[in-house]
From TrEMBL:
It comes from Skeletonema marinoi. Gene3D superfamilies: Glycogen Phosphorylase B. InterPro entries: DGDG1/2 (IPR044525). Keywords: Chloroplast, Glycosyltransferase, Membrane, Plastid, Transferase. GO terms for molecular function: digalactosyldiacylglycerol synthase activity. Its EC number is 2.4.1.241. The lineage of its organism: Eukaryota, Sar, Stramenopiles, Ochrophyta, Bacillariophyta. This is Digalactosyldiacylglycerol synthase.
Length: 437
């Protein structure tokens, strides 16, 4: 790769390829200069966060922020990307002629090595996938979940599945929950029920009665308002909340349950499959990539979930073949990235017929003009970071209103070099005159 020799240019020449992560968010505020598609010959964007969904979850602000983010994200991808890769079809449509869906992520070698260990262990045992005659759903250390402890991560669905499984079998299934989050307390109460009892010791003295009354009053004030009806349950669900931990350290489990449908592509599900575990997930657009693996037990309703969990508790996961294990590596992810980034001649012809190139250039120009003089940053509450354009112009010496093309021209360079040389000569003459005196 060749770098530009011009001063203050940190980009590669236009014959290079640039990969932008989250281009719909990265380009909201731009520094002075040409856009990505002008600096690089080919720009690929990878989108993996559903900002529209996050904005929609805000009760009041989401009514206007979600549509605004949707329009802004589409404009940024049109203006600054030749091709965009969405990790799943859950994400919005940005530019139909530019986008495709593909998982271009991989996992660490720790997870793949655990999957190989399980495969070797299964090969050394006979009757690995035979059904077990004994079944106890309440035995801990079989089923787990790892992720942020938020209602948005599917915990209400988890509770509904627990209740249905209890109706079918008469038992809840034990689950260990790893992770943390601001809603952990109320989610714990939803699984365990409220246990706020504060019976003080009986005493005949007035002082003890006053102390007991005061203590009970403090406890009464500390009681939080129930956030869900699940908190009033009488029979607790056997769920252990174990706190945050590295997923690669959870090799002892064989079944990962993740009912969430709010993800774009769940990394923990991918990691669990790489470790050779059963993964029980709903049939959803965000889980489409995982359905190809034999240990992925997908369900469409509660009946299928109960059947899949029953199967997972009485069987062993199928060992990963070398071909399937390779799908989890970053090498395979890179191959998928290269394959998905390609633009065929047919696609190029269709784009030309649509005539959207001029529209994309106009969007980039409008966005560039809109971001001049930091006005957009100040309006949107940029705070101390609102003067970045001014800082960049001053750093490049363009704050006097001169364009970059003029400042980098040979005429300006000749004038600057003349003044610099004259200044050096005058300084040398003054120094020699002072020494002679």
């Amino acid at each position: 790769m060749c770098y530009s020799t011009q001063p203050n240019r940190r980009y590669l020449l236009s014959d290079a390829v640039c990969v932008l992560e989250e281009p719909e968010h990265l380009n909201w505020y731009r520094c002075p200069g040409e856009g990505w598609t002008k600096v690089f010959g080919f720009v690929v964007g990878i989108v993996h966060t559903n900002y529209v969904e996050y904005a929609s979850s805000q009760f009041i602000h989401g009514l206007w922020t979600a549509p605004a983010i949707q329009v802004m994200s589409s404009a940024m991808i049109r203006a600054y990307c030749h091709k965009v890769i969405k990790l799943s079809g859950v994400l919005q449509t940005y530019a139909p002629e530019k986008e495709c869906c593909e998982n271009v992520h991989g996992v660490r070698q720790d997870f793949i090595q655990e999957g190989r260990r399980r495969a070797l262990e299964a090969a050394s045992l006979s009757g690995t996938n035979s059904a077990s005659s004994e079944l106890n759903e309440e035995i801990e250390g079989q089923v787990y979940f790892i992720g942020k402890i938020l209602w948005a991560k599917g915990f209400e669905l988890m509770l509904q599945l627990q209740e249905f499984y209890h109706e079918c079998t008469g038992k809840y299934f034990a689950i260990d929950v790893y992770g943390g989050g601001p809603e952990e307390g109320e989610i714990k109460r939803a699984f365990h029920g409220r246990r706020n009892s504060w019976n003080g010791e009986e005493s005949d003295s007035d002082s003890d009665l006053e102390d007991t009354f005061r203590d009970n009053l403090k406890k009464l004030k500390s009681i939080e308002v129930p956030k869900s009806l699940y908190e009033w349950r009488r029979k607790p669900i056997p769920a252990n909340f174990c706190g945050p931990v590295d997923h690669s350290l959870l090799g002892k489990y064989k079944t990962f349950v993740n009912p969430s449908t709010s993800e774009v592509l769940c990394t923990t599900t991918f990691e669990a499959l790489a470790m050779g575990k059963f993964v029980i997930i709903p049939v959803h657009e965000s889980n489409k990539f995982f359905l190809q693996f034999p240990n992925c037990l997908s369900y469409r309703n509660k009946w299928e979930f109960a059947a899949n969990l029953r199967w997972a508790l009485t069987h062993e996961p199928e060992p990963l073949t070398p071909e399937l294990a390779k799908e989890f590596t970053w090498e395979a992810a890179t191959d998928r990235l290269i394959r998905s980034s390609a633009i065929t001649r047919r696609e190029a012809k269709e784009r030309y017929n649509l005539g959207k190139a001029k529209l994309d250039e106009r969007i980039a120009y409008f966005h560039r003009e809109l971001g001049k003089h930091d006005a957009l940053r100040r309006v949107l509450g940029g705070g101390p970071a609102s003067n970045q354009v001014r800082y960049e112009l001053e750093r490049q010496g363009l704050d006097q209103g001169n364009s970059e093309k003029f400042a980098m021209s040979s005429f300006v360079k000749a004038i600057k070099s003349t003044f610099i040389s004259n200044n050096h000569h005058s300084q040398a003459a003054s120094l020699s005159g002072g020494s002679a005196a």
